[in-house]
Write a structure and sequence with these properties.
Helix content: 55-70%
Number of strands: 7
Shape: elongated
Strand content: 5-15%
Radius of gyration: 33 Å
Distance between the termini: 56 Å
Strand order of the largest sheet: 2-4-5-7-6
Order of helices and strands: HHHHHHHEHHEEHEEHEEH
Low-confidence stretches: 1-17, 146-154, 480-484
Mean pLDDT: 75
Number of helices: 12
Structural class: alpha+beta
Length: 484
């Protein structure tokens, strides 16, 4: 910070003038010394921000970018089995490794929390890369092993933990920069106050006020310029995210089309379009068609997750009786439950029928309920029962406002306590569980419930079944009509 001193006129050599001159000279000395001290302090703080903190943040951002590209390369290889994706992964990993020495050197000059976060980031990254079994993936490409077997090798939870560690390190850097800026502002503010006092004692208050006003205008202009730059950067980042999502959707669409064509050809062969096939070959064609349809289903679920992540999910809210909707979904699954030897029941616990009318998207609620009931029927052995309940949730001080809860309870084997949070992760299935699935349905349902303003939770005791609860905000009919 530069603090200009006052402009002084020529003083007459009188006793009074001499005393004033001495006082002014002393004031100038104090002002000059204060100016030098403030400049040294502010320069040191700004140097620390510009030469240490900001480069550290840039390196962490680069690590985040490389991690995203690494997992993209691995997924590309799993989809295409093109070895160039592995070479790209190796190159990106090497680039990441080259960053850590500089990152750790910078972090050592910052607060201990930053150094700890950077160390944790490096450790988690090494663990994640260590769990990616590239040799089995390469063998799969050579032997033609089913691709889905190796999807779990991506270790999504370690990858997510690594990104979260990078986020914490970035947050610590930002907080440090904010603290430095606060310190700079404090030093400058104190300096201006002291200058004002000395200028007042010297009789040059008007000049000091003018200088301070000029400085304030300069800071305001600089702040406005930085704000505009930040807005432009944010807009550019949003465009980049949109372009990335567009690319992912286009790529997935291109993969899904030939798979659907393959299903069509398989059906034609099964129907004897090219001549009657032996029973064994027809059975093999059925297995091929089923495997392709599973792949198409996975692609559809990945597209759904992509839309949820990019805020591309279309939510169409309208007045909906969730009790009637739940009853209808239960009826749709009655035949499947009967075929599986299960008793599927619906219990409505609310008072009047309109008490469950709320403002939400009925199709998205139906999607979540369908997934929960389908899972309950799939994982509950026969004979068993699945009970679906709808009603107003009891008041909860942690969740202000009225809420509706839709509960799906089964008599299945239950879910271990350590797995009750993980089941909402993508591609995660409870070890040893019966039934199929790709580990995406609950992850999608969880995100949809939160977009609708609610949540999806589970309660379970191993050996005594499980209860999944869809929580949704409740509004009275008058409130719904007023918003509609």
């Amino acid at each position: 910070m530069s603090l200009p001193g006052p402009r002084l006129g020529r003083l007459r050599a009188t006793p009074a003038g001499g005393s004033v001159g001495i006082l002014l000279a002393l004031a100038l000395l104090v002002v000059g010394g204060l100016q030098v001290a403030v400049e040294l302090r502010v320069d040191a703080l700004r140097h620390h921000v510009n030469e240490v903190a900001e480069p550290t943040g840039e390196l962490i951002a680069e690590v985040q970018y490389l991690l995203a590209r690494q997992t993209s390369a691995l997924r590309g290889f799993l989809v295409s089995r093109d070895s160039t994706y592995l070479a790209r992964y190796d190159s990106l990993r090497a680039a990441e490794q080259r960053i850590y020495p500089d990152l750790e050197r910078y972090a050592a000059e910052l607060a201990p929390v930053v150094a700890a976060d950077v160390a944790e980031l490096s450790t988690l990254s090494d663990q994640w890369h260590g769990r990616i079994l590239l040799r089995p993936i390469t063998d799969a490409a050579t032997t033609g092993t089913t691709l889905d077997t190796f999807v779990v090798l991506l270790e999504q939870r370690l990858y997510t933990a690594t990104l979260e560690a990078a986020g914490r390190a970035m947050q610590a850097i930002r907080q440090l920069i904010r603290d430095q800026e606060v310190e700079i502002a404090r030093v400058e503010r104190n300096a201006r106050l002291m200058l004002g006092v000395f200028f007042f004692l010297a009789g040059i208050v008007a000049v000091s006020i003018s200088v301070l006003n000029t400085r304030i205008r300069s800071l305001a202009a600089e702040s406005e310029a930085r704000r505009l730059e930040a807005e432009m950067a944010m807009t550019s980042n949003e465009r980049a995210v949109a372009a990335r999502e567009y690319l992912i959707r286009g790529f997935t669409h291109d993969v899904k089309n030939p798979l659907n064509v393959a299903v069509g050809y398989a059906e034609l062969l099964e129907l004897g379009h090219k001549g009657t096939l032996p029973t064994q070959q027809v059975d093999m064609l059925g297995r091929i068609r089923s495997a392709i349809q599973d792949a198409v289903e996975i692609i559809n679920e990945l597209l759904e997750i992509s839309r949820l992540e990019s805020a591309g999910l279309q939510v169409k809210r309208k007045a909906t009786d969730l009790g009637a909707l739940t009853s209808e979904v239960v009826r749709e699954h009655a035949m499947a439950a009967s075929a599986a030897g299960l008793d599927l029941r619906f219990v409505r616990t609310d008072e009047p029928r309109e008490s469950l009318t709320t403002f939400t998207d009925p199709e998205r609620v139906r999607q979540v309920l369908t997934n929960l009931i389908t899972n309950a029927l799939k994982y509950t052995p026969s004979p068993g029962e699945v009970t679906v309940r709808s009603g107003i949730a009891p008041k909860d001080p942690d969740h202000p406002g009225r809420r509706i809860r839709l509960m799906v309870t089964d008599s299945g084997p239950g879910i271990p306590l350590e797995e009750q949070e993980r089941i909402f992760y993508e591609f995660h299935r409870v070890p040893g569980s019966i039934g199929g699935g790709h580990g995406l349905g609950l992850a999608i349902s969880k995100r949809i419930s939160r977009i609708l303003g609610g949540d999806l939770t589970v309660e379970s005791v191993p050996g005594h079944g499980a209860t999944f609860t869809l929580w949704l905000p409740h509004r009275r009919r008058g409130e719904v009509e007023a918003d509609a």
